[in-house]
Design brief:
The protein has helices at 2-22, 89-97, 146-149, and strands at residues 26-42, 52-70, 76-86, 109-117, 120-126, 172-178, 183-189, 223-230, 237-247, 256-268, 271-283, 290-303, 308-319, 327-337, 341-351, 360-371. By secondary structure, it is mainly beta. Strands 1-2-3-4-5-6-7-8-9-10-11-12-13-14-15-16 form a 16-stranded antiparallel β-barrel. The chain is globular, with a radius of gyration of 24 Å. It starts with a helix and ends with a strand. The relative contact order is 0.15.
């Protein structure tokens, strides 16, 4: 009996040691951001002359799990995923997950399995590979860009281009190579229209794009993207160049989608200057109309000290299907680094928001982001 107990004890110790060793390179991190937004709007539809105001709290929470190590062939690997719940997304997302095979909203965040050999990475996943969803002119940083600050003004979404039609949030495969002064990547997704993943068996009904199973054309709107980002060997410089294209041949999906984005940021000590340019085009066979959007953005930043940065931003956007309107977004962003807590204050003004003539609005948003 004593021998059995001793054996069992040794087995338990071995199991605990195994768990400890296997999780030694697994990390858990996350963040919680709480904010407060206030906005006031006016538009041509406000015939009584009243200004509409809106107040709300905002929330983003995310948990990240990551693991990395060596393969038995000597190559490195990295894998992980995140659970993100913005606002009330957690409740609705989990409810959806219990009724179908698709990954619910908020659970396709930062999913990756990377095989690494030197400066080259083979990537599988979603929302992880380098992508154009960044605004170099947002010099003071923070969780949101100027278009998000003004989102919802007169119930309009700004037409300012942020992602340049990128499908980076859809599941796909890609290759990333670090050349030193520039990092290049190519990414391909089988379906840009549906960022969800099927279950392990790949059941078509779980992430069907064209309606119910066997009730539509089996046409996937795949997309290929290329991106370059780096300092070009110049200290203080950040540049990016992006191109993405997709063709489906379907009358129910965008027949052709393209996106371009170029940007540069240069730091000169306490002063930083930046500029972005983006253009997108989406056409659909059923309408025969090609929607073209063009956005330009400039930014100026000043580091008051190592913890406080003030940034100014201005954008101009035009769309061919919205003649006579030029959307202009202007804002100031103040970033205050408190170590584990970062605070950002954004104040912005929009003209012709959403490409609607005389649709004006103002908004202020303050975020406190805690990393853990």
């Amino acid at each position: 009996m004593k021998k059995l107990l001793a054996t069992s004890a040794l087995t338990c110790v071995a199991m605990l040691s195994s768990v400890t060793l296997s999780s030694a390179q697994t990390t858990v991190s996350g963040n919680l951001a709480l904010g407060y937004k206030a906005s006031s709007t006016s538009s041509p539809s406000t015939t009584d002359g009243k200004v509409i105001s809106f107040r709300t709290f905002t929330k983003e929470s995310q948990i990240n799990l990551a693991n990395k190590g060596k393969l038995n062939n000597g190559m490195d690997y990295a894998a992980g995923f995140s659970l993100e719940f913005d606002g009330n997304q957690g409740a609705t997302g989990l409810a959806v997950a219990s009724t179908n095979d698709s990954i619910a909203a908020g659970t396709s965040e930062n999913v990756y399995l990377n095989i690494i050999s030197g400066n080259t990475t083979l990537h599988f996943g979603a929302d992880h590979i380098q992508n154009p969803d960044t605004m170099l002119t947002n010099i003071a940083g923070g969780l949101v860009d100027i278009d998000e600050v003004l989102s919802g003004v007169n119930n309009k979404a700004p037409i300012f281009i942020t992602t340049a039609n990128s499908a980076y949030q859809a599941y796909g495969a890609g290759v990333v190579h670090n050349f030193g002064p520039i990092t290049a990547s190519i990414y391909h997704v089988p379906s840009r229209s549906n960022g969800l993943a099927a279950n392990n068996g790949g059941n078509r009904g779980s992430n069907d794009v064209d309606g119910t199973v066997n009730a539509g054309a089996d046409i996937s709107e795949s997309q290929t993207e290329i991106m370059l980002r780096g300092d070009l060997g110049v200290k203080g410089l950040t540049t990016l160049a992006y191109y993405g294209t997709s063709e489906s041949g379907s009358t129910t999906l965008a027949d052709k989608t393209t996106g371009y984005k170029f940007g540069a940021r240069y730091n000169m000590g306490a002063i930083t200057v930046a500029a972005d340019f983006a253009e997108t085009e989406t056409s659909t066979l059923s309408t025969g109309v090609a929607v073209q959007t063009e956005s330009k953005s400039i930014g100026l930043g000043y580091a008051v000290n190592k913890d406080v940065t003030v940034g100014l931003m201005h954008t101009r956007s035009d769309r061919n299907t919205l003649p006579g309107a030029t959307e202009k977004l202007t804002g100031i962003n103040i970033g205050y680094n408190l170590g584990p807590v970062a605070v950002n204050v954004n104040v912005a003004k929009g003209d012709d928001v959403g490409g609607v003539v005389n649709s004006e609005g103002k908004a202020a948003l303050i975020h406190a982001n805690v990393a853990f």
